[in-house]
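Tutorial sheet, problem 5. The four components below are modelled jointly, 692 residues in total.
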Amino acid sequence: MPTRKPRSSRTGRATMADVATAAGVSAMTVSRALNRPDKVSEEVRARVAEASRRLGFVPSRLAAALATARSMTVTVLIPSLTNSVFIDVLAGIQETLSPHGYQPVIGVTGYAPEEEERVLRTQLASGPDGVILTGLDHTPATWDLLRGLPTPVVHTMDLARNFAGDTDDALTVGFSQFDAGHAVGRHLVERGRRRIGLIAGQLDPRTRQRCDGWRQALVEAGLHDPALELMVPDSTSVALGAELLERMLAAHPDLDALFLCNDDLAQGALFHCARRGIAVPGRLAVAGFNDLGGAAWTIPPLTTVATPRHAIGVEAARLLLAAINGNDNGPRSVDLGFRLMVRETT
Amino acid sequence: MPTRKPRSSRTGRATMADVATAAGVSAMTVSRALNRPDKVSEEVRARVAEASRRLGFVPSRLAAALATARSMTVTVLIPSLTNSVFIDVLAGIQETLSPHGYQPVIGVTGYAPEEEERVLRTQLASGPDGVILTGLDHTPATWDLLRGLPTPVVHTMDLARNFAGDTDDALTVGFSQFDAGHAVGRHLVERGRRRIGLIAGQLDPRTRQRCDGWRQALVEAGLHDPALELMVPDSTSVALGAELLERMLAAHPDLDALFLCNDDLAQGALFHCARRGIAVPGRLAVAGFNDLGGAAWTIPPLTTVATPRHAIGVEAARLLLAAINGNDNGPRSVDLGFRLMVRETT
DNA sequence: CTGTTAGCGCTTTCAC
DNA sequence: GTGAAAGCGCTAACAG
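Model answer (structure tokens):
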């Protein structure tokens, strides 16, 4: 009598036991044949492979995770999905983790430390083998959670040495937002500008650090005027950049240079200038931040700061993988730097 | 003698059993107190909550998933992380799933059906409660896998009725790429253009359908010239748009209108025109596709097609949730349409 | 309302 | 090289 496929599982899927029966071996041998082929005889391996294919066997990673206490997932917390900055980081993470069999699992925090804490808490329930967070500004409870983890944690986009609080000797991968802002400020000063303004939105800690750096550079040059700072909490966009520039110009017609904390704002500013016939850089110099896709293609091409977003993702994942594998002797903090891209708007 | 926290778990974390002991109840009661509070006495609930908090208990979703056969995850397969089109869809999915406790788990397919099949296979191992895919162009083996699933599947960005192959009465959410392309073609014709060209990159099935629609419109008007089609496999970018337009203009100086299958290409084309002093729309009309962030802010503002990417994500997730909850009586195919955004480049 | 029993599907450990 | 037993941490199903 022909053997029927015995689908024992509740889910209707074949289990290892099913494959075992079909192959005439024990479940344990199936497990070995699939995971450590070298630990099993050539012949058995073939039989198991055949049975496995015939039954359309898909091993349950859930069960494996429970048994081994390794989920093969990595929790990745980012502030927003619609900000391409974090998507670039995520892409780097995913490309690096994936070949090693690890699955990034995304959590979106909406730029709010409390939400980050909540999301982290729920994600920890699925027992990730590692955690990658954005920034170092977490709630005390979040730090507690992280401290209690048996798995490694990497913080991105910032560096421990630039952080005011206690970072517990955390693993960090990023660059100095402060230095980057400072570089822009100095560049504008060196171009001979005297009335240098600042427009910023989405005031997360990293944006603030950039602004701090810029301010410091102006103070050093004796050129800082607080009235020329326009900082709003709204999320950045092309439209917002145009609008804020209009506002600033109305109040300070003598403005001759401007740092906008993100390229989309800068693009909006350039658009406003084009419409109003304001010469760039003749009358107004404009600098952005991040070197997003279109920055080299604005008219005129935008001076901005290129940030190593993708590389940060790659490096964060590498550090995490190393830590997961017990390599604790690597660097604890990786500074990937930034590059001031001087183009034609300054 | 003071009771020590008995951390029985291998992972060093407290288990339900630990909490149970600490609260003086059974593990089952802890489970109920946490998941169905109404099924438990006020007093016990409080005791469990207290013990749970004191031990820093984080329930293992893995174990729960294994026991209930519900992982509370949804596999989401997209071609690319760096194409904002899919990120917008993803954001819609994530926002909709998240409040219901479902975790989207992303897989990246690189626009390759074979890779999609591979990624899907590995993801199925973690027993998702649903699957959301991009497009309807899957390998036969992928269709087999999907058919065999006990969980619902939703296909996005396309509509079953527009698909050439057999779709198994699949759930689909999207819009007609063909009609959208057709609308652009007709619009250009109606603007009185005679030498209407096409530039396309990233030739996935959806791009091809858009091109087909455009071509159809020109054929209908008796204006189609195959020589004016420039289709390349490269992924789209601003730089590519500029380059391809230059090439096309060299070969066909009489070109008077152009459809570019993605806004970044169109932006590059506009840039090239600005640099070469080609009047838009005077000498050359330009239309893009997708209405990405900057499209309204190019100079002049770009005519393009607004696609409901976010809404597609939201609706796909809704349909999936309904199906997971056994509501099979809703629509099987949702057409979210598109809007031709006529601005100043045509 | 609460507890007991059994088991999800896999892997660890130890025999053989 | 292979198998049997036990258990990962939770919950379904039943009993009380």
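Marking note: Chain B touches chain A through 51 residues (CB under 8 Å). Full credit if you identified this.
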